[in-house]
Design a protein that fits this description.
By secondary structure, the protein is of the alpha/beta class. It has 2 domains: 262 residues, FAD/NAD(P)-binding domain (3-Layer(bba) Sandwich); 142 residues, D-Amino Acid Oxidase, Chain A, domain 2. The protein is built from 11 helices and 19 strands. A hairpin with a 2-residue loop joins strand 18 and strand 19. Helix 1 runs parallel beside helix 10, helix 4 packs across helix 7 and helix 4 packs across helix 10. The two termini are 22 Å apart. The C terminus is likely disordered. The structure holds flavin-adenine dinucleotide. Flavin-adenine dinucleotide binds next to helix 1, strand 2, helix 2, strand 13 and strand 17.
Length: 410
């Protein structure tokens, strides 16, 4: 019998994991999504693949994961395009990171040193060079960095293509209304299915592995498995202007906002960060801030209003790093969530990591992303080795869950 993988959450992370798990044809894969596939943070994203701009400080494990994921993108994107027949909008434009104050030049230089050593191919830019690369940018830049390796995709298109590619590989993609009704876990190799899950609309699933890819809603599942709930939503507001193609040539980063030109005369400007619970409305304050920065950075935008504005909920964790790993004590469960500002970038590396976990391979890099890392020693002690067979209800999700732990042999 084929191994069965059940994935909760149909954003880019859940879909990428599904594609990878289904790739060899050795597994039956299903994804359960309670809204629309790609309809949450994934559909809101600017689609930047920018490990160097996003990691100005140090080449730590998170940077390595980001860089590895960027390196995987060309092959991954073309596989999705082949399977789906759709263009995911991968553009290898490079990026210009610009500073307007001399005091900001020193951190820029130290960033450049370690990033060059890490293979960024980056170069320091003078004001004149910035003006040559981005003629529409306002005068007065103190300097900048050009990073040729950075790229971007069209995130909503990528999500739609990924969904189609999953279908092509025979992945079952199901919507569910309302959420989950029950979840039971049993040990691998014992009687019955290791994972049994029922949704509120009455669908039942049996699987060998459960992958939690539920984005900003993952705190519910951390609690369910006795972990502190660390994943939380950070709202991102973003907008786009209608400008002729080609006016902005690279991704442009400043300390306050970024701009990235998409096909179809769209110049996307993002993104605010605020805490608004699970509300994903835009506000006049959030978009107004982007408008002010757009007018300062690109004088051509001063008399324009954004054509579109929207928002999404980034799945943040306490340390800004994702949770990727099998859960201690629950060998049936893999977390792949909490990708915060970089889930589009991190999708291929996360999917590869999840496949390695399904194949029981050890990846030393994943130690930095263990889902249990926020558990304090006292909280750890509160979860006994022989854990209770029934995990408390998930009231926030309306989930009446009874999860039987695998390790105690029941
Ligand atoms: C404005 C903005 C700009 C961004 N720009 C970038 C960028 O340029 N580059 C980049 O790399 N990243 C960017 N990000 C971050 C990126 O969008 C996220 O990190 C990424 O989309 C997270 O993907 P996900 O699949 O984990 O979450 P989501 O896309 O939110 O998907 C999670 C899914 O799980 C579903 N779900 C939740 N609970 C359940 C349940 N109980 N049962 C079934 N389904 C459930 C939800 O309905 C949702 O569809 C941006 C985010 C925002 C908001």
């Amino acid at each position: 019998m084929k191994e069965r993988v059940l994935i909760l959450g149909g954003g880019i992370i859940g879909l990428a994991c599904a594609l990878e798990a289904a790739r060899t044809g050795e597994r039956e894969v299903a994804v359960v999504e309670r809204g629309s596939f790609g309809g949450q943070a994934t559909g809101a994203a600017a689609g930047m693949l920018a490990p160097y701009s996003e990691n100005p400080e140090q080449p730590d494990a998170f940077f390595q994961l980001c860089q590895d994921s960027l390196n995987r993108y060309p092959e991954w994107a073309s596989r999705i395009e082949e399977l789906s027949g759709a263009d995911v909008g991968l553009r290898r434009t490079g990026s210009v990171g610009v500073v307007f104050h001399e005091a900001d030049l020193l951190p820029l230089q130290s960033r450049l040193r370690w990033q060059q050593a890490a293979g960024s191919g980056g170069e320091l830019l003078s004001a004149a060079e910035i003006a040559r690369l981005e003629p529409k940018l306002a005068a007065g830049a103190a300097g900048g960095i050009f990073t040729p390796a950075e790229a971007h995709v069209d995130a909503p298109r990528l999500a739609a293509a990924l969904e189609q590619a999953c279908r092509q590989l025979g992945v079952r993609l199901d919507g569910c209304t309302g959420g989950l009704a029950s979840l039971e876990l049993r040990p691998h190799g014992g009687g019955g299915s290791p994972v049994r899950l029922t949704t509120e609309n009455g669908e039942s699933y049996e699987a060998d592995h459960l992958v939690i890819g539920t984005g900003a809603w993952t705190g519910e599942f951390e609690q369910l498995f006795g972990l502190p709930a660390t994943v939380h939503p950070i709202r991102g507001q973003i907008c786009s202007y209608e400008v002729p193609d080609g006016l902005v040539r690279h991704m442009v980063f400043s300390s306050q906002a970024y701009w990235v030109a998409k096909s179809g005369m769209r110049l996307v400007c993002g993104a605010s960060e605020d805490v608004a619970g699970f509300c994903s409305d835009v506000t006049a304050k959030g978009i107004g801030r982007l408008e002010r920065w757009s007018a300062r950075a690109f004088p051509m935008l001063a008399d324009m209003k954004p054509k579109l504005s929207w928002a999404g909920l980034r799945p943040a964790t306490r340390d800004g790093r994702p949770l990727i790993g099998r859960l201690d004590g629950y060998p049936q469960v893999i977390f792949a969530a909490g990708h915060y500002r970089n889930g589009i970038l991190l999708a291929p590396a996360t999917a590869a990591a999840v496949l390695a976990l399904l194949e029981e391979k050890q990846l030393p890099l994943l130690r930095a992303f263990r889902p249990e890392r926020f558990r304090s020693s006292s909280a750890g002690a509160a979860v006994p080795a022989a854990a209770p067979a029934v995990v408390p209800e998930l009231s926030a999700a309306g989930l009446a869950a009874a999860a039987q732990r695998g390790r105690d042999g029941r």
